[in-house]
Write a structure and sequence with these properties.
heterodimer, A: 59 residues, mainly alpha, elongated, B: 712 residues, two-stranded antiparallel ribbon, 3% strand
Chain lengths: 59, 712
């Protein structure tokens, strides 16, 4: 089945395969970076824009 | 507990970039409006060569991208970077050099582009001395940014900063590679790449100028200013991490979608299409992350103009990033390419995403910089509606114009012939849409003027808080906590982040571009294709100077509707001596690749003198100055020499006799013109003769000797 899909996709050269593999690697790296953190860390990172250590002149 | 340190944020540099943003916003929009007006009323150029559409278009795009959005990026980065890292900028002096350097570059662009000093590459038109200045100022920005990151008090680099880092490194790479050129004179250079290779490098740059100048830095700004304005953290920080890595990796591959159905090899086109479609996922991930940040806070959106601007901006981002991939599907691109559909698409992005987000940030920042309230919330709301309606009135008619014209180009009658064989018919049909576009642009720019007034009044009723006191503990040396490996590996190490970003964005460029440079089979040679003569070269440079490429493509796609209209489809081997390539991206006028030999010399002479005499109803402006100005052959020999170093096969020593050859060919064309009733003293020395020589050469290398077949 997969051979048929690959054949019907035309001339799959090394560039297409390399592109797919590198994308998978980068995507998985992003997933690992995202999910290898605990909740407290994520909460802290997400709140960084709201904690700039200055007094807001107005609100 | 680490002792708290007191320090000051630099607000003055933020204000300066903010003022520049507002100023250049008005300039960029005004130039765009004048250009749009010329498409329905060519006389709006006031018969001046400096204000013709061909020269104004690059001024408009450069002003919008690098002056308006560029200053908007720096304004937002200088504000957010200090606060996210809890430190002042690394160097106030570098901040000032960056600010004034960037403004000088913009002024240089505003002077040189109307003078016709251009490399003709879209969004990279500025000539080599300005390219070098851009590189230097960009490095100053980089040193200031990384210096700030290195002296930070906050260990973690917030995701917005990742986007800033990726922007800096990618723009550096793009700028260098797309501007590899050899100077011929102070204002003229010849690119090292030719034809299809030049096209691939240019659109690798052009697409990623959109990606890494109009998108990634603004995503960074969204991840900072949206939580600030809504006073709540981003919806999903995890999603922002995946968004970042997936987006910067995929974006760089998508450039070839600008060259579908051209002479670019099929494999490169296929990669461009696939990665463009994949882009929907991270783009929409980012958009949803932005919109969902406002969950439970939609009541605020109803009241706060800042959030209104931001919601429309993020929505426009979502629309543009769905449409972009769809336009990259070959069958859709076959309809959209070269039409106003593309113009509408990019304006959803710039007016909607960049414009509205910038306005929202300016309205949020100004009261904070001046320590007071916004002068008028009502005026800000008025601006919001003018901006939103302006976008609608601008884009809807232009979408309609694009679809209409494309359908007309492709329509065949029962007799098997093109129904609209005269290209001009397809232009006059869409002029009412062009008029509506002017209305939309006027509404949008009115909103910008309202904003400028509001910001000036806000500033005048307050006082700039140039230095804001803040306090934070000194940065603790990062300890090794459980589960922190991945975090410590990259997100606390800015240089590692820089290198990782560079590697991730470089992969796509390397895979697509290097084979094109190294494998000869990708650009099959055609024996009959010869280098341009000296006169044709000078004519080509006049074509470049006048910005003809802004309205005329030189790429006949392999469709029956195009080969019927223009002739044989274009082959990659025909462009091997084209430095730069001039394929164009928009057909306001017809394609010119096969125009050589189609009309007599006198037709071109009279057409350039006054297009309406040969094509009644034409919206092309007259070019009477070409009939008066003399050909500048001072640099002809230098051009030949540079081309020889780039392997253009002129005979040895040809540079020394190039001017003599130029004069001989010019004399022949002038004699022919005289025979056909053109009586002008010194005709053989005029620029029009060189331009005619170039136009008559176009596309003739692979067809039988040019003969004048018909006059239309």
């Amino acid at each position: 089945m997969y051979k048929y899909i690959l054949q019907s996709a035309g001339n799959i050269n090394w560039m297409a395969i390399f592109a797919l593999l590198t994308f998978l690697f980068i995507f998985l790296m992003g997933v690992v970076l995202a999910f290898a953190k605990d909740k407290e860390q994520i909460k802290h990172f997400a709140s960084l824009p709201l904690e700039d250590g200055q007094k807001e002149p107005i609100q | 507990m680490t002792q708290s340190e007191t320090f000051y944020y630099d607000n003055k540099i933020v204000r300066d970039f903010g003022v520049a943003t507002a100023l250049w916003c008005v300039v960029a929009f005004t130039v765009g409006l004048i250009a749009a007006l010329q498409l329905v009323w060519p006389a709006a150029n006031l018969s001046l060569e400096y204000t013709t559409f061909g020269r104004l278009r690059p001024l408009h795009t450069n002003a919008a991208i690098f002056a308006f959005v560029g200053n908007g990026i720096f304004m937002g980065v200088y504000y957010s970077l200090q606060r996210l890292l809890k430190t002042r900028m690394y160097s106030d002096l570098l901040s000032k050099i960056h600010f004034w350097g960037w403004q000088l570059i913009i002024v240089a662009a505003a002077l040189t582009l109307p003078l016709g000093i251009t490399s003709s590459k879209e969004y990279a038109e500025l000539e080599w001395p300005i390219d070098i200045a851009i590189a230097l100022v960009w490095v100053v920005f980089g040193i200031n940014m990384f210096g700030t990151i290195l002296k930070r008090r906050e260990n973690h680099l917030y995701v917005a900063i990742w986007f800033y880092i990726a922007t800096w490194i990618t723009v550096t790479i793009l700028h260098i590679f797309n501007n590899l050129e050899i100077p011929v004179s102070a204002f003229k250079s010849i690119p090292v790449f030719a034809g299809v290779q030049d096209a691939l490098v240019q659109w690798w740059y052009g697409h990623n100028a959109v990606a890494f100048f109009l998108t990634t830095p603004y995503l960074g700004l969204m991840y900072y200013f949206l939580p600030k304005a809504a006073n709540r953290p981003v919806y999903s920080y995890k999603l922002s991490i995946i968004h970042f890595w997936a987006l910067i990796f995929i974006y760089i591959w998508a450039g070839p979608h600008h060259l579908l159905y051209t002479s670019l090899p099929g494999w490169a086109q296929a990669l461009g299409t696939v990665f463009s479609l994949m882009l929907i996922a991270p783009s929409w991930g980012g958009m949803l992350n932005g919109l969902l940040t406002l969950r439970g806070a939609w009541d605020k959106v109803r009241q706060d103009p800042v959030l209104k601007f931001m919601v429309v901006a993020i929505t426009a981002y979502g629309m543009a990033t769905l449409e972009g991939p769809l336009l990259s599907i070959k069958s859709v691109n076959a309809i959209s390419h070269y039409t106003d559909w593309t113009i509408a698409h990019v304006h959803v992005g710039t007016l909607g995403w960049n414009g509205m987000l910038t306005f929202g940030i300016l309205y949020w920042l100004w009261p904070r910089l001046y320590g007071n309230k916004l002068f008028s919330t009502k005026l800000a709301n008025l601006h919001f509606w003018l901006g939103t309606l302006g976008i609608i009135f601008y884009t809807v008619p232009i979408y309609w114009a694009g679809w209409t014209q494309s359908m007309m180009w492709k329509q065949f009658g029962a007799d098997g012939l093109l129904v609209y064989s005269n290209f001009l018919e397809t232009v006059t049909q869409i002029l009412p849409m062009y008029m509506l576009r002017v209305l939309g642009g006027t509404i949008y720019i009115t909103g910008a003027f309202v904003m400028v007034y509001n910001l000036i009044k806000t500033a005048r009723s307050g006082k700039l808080i140039a230095n804001v006191e803040a306090s934070a503990p000194a940065r603790a040396v990062a300890g090794s906590h459980k589960g922190e490996y991945w975090h410590k590996w990259i997100e606390r190490k800015p240089i590692t982040m820089l290198i990782a970003s560079a590697v991730v964005v470089a992969i796509g460029g390397l895979v697509e571009i290097f084979p094109m440079m190294l494998i000869d089979n990708n650009v099959p040679k055609i024996a009959s294709v010869k280098p341009y003569t000296p006169l044709e070269l000078e004519g080509r440079d006049i074509y470049i100077k006048e910005g003809c490429v802004g309205c005329h493509s030189q790429m006949v796609r392999p469709f029956r509707s195009e080969t019927e209209r223009y002739g044989e489809y274009s082959k990659s081997g025909e462009f091997i001596y084209d430095r730069p390539f001039l394929w164009g991206s928009k057909r306001t006028g017809p394609d010119l690749h096969r125009v050589g030999g189609k009309y007599p010399n006198s037709w071109h002479y009279n057409h350039m003198k006054d297009p309406e005499t040969m094509s009644p109803g034409s919206i092309m402006p007259p070019y009477p100055w070409l009939l008066k100005k003399e050909i500048n052959s001072d640099y002809t020999a230098a051009k030949i020499k540079v081309l020889q170093t780039l392997n253009t096969p002129y005979p040895n020593g040809y540079a020394d006799r190039a001017v003599a050859d130029l004069k001989l060919q010019a004399q022949g064309i002038a004699d022919d013109l005289r025979k056909n009733g053109v009586e002008v003293e010194g005709l053989e020395n005029k620029e029009i003769v060189a331009l005619i020589a170039y136009l008559q050469r176009l596309g003739t290398d692979i067809k039988p000797k040019a003969t004048v077949e018909r006059i239309q």
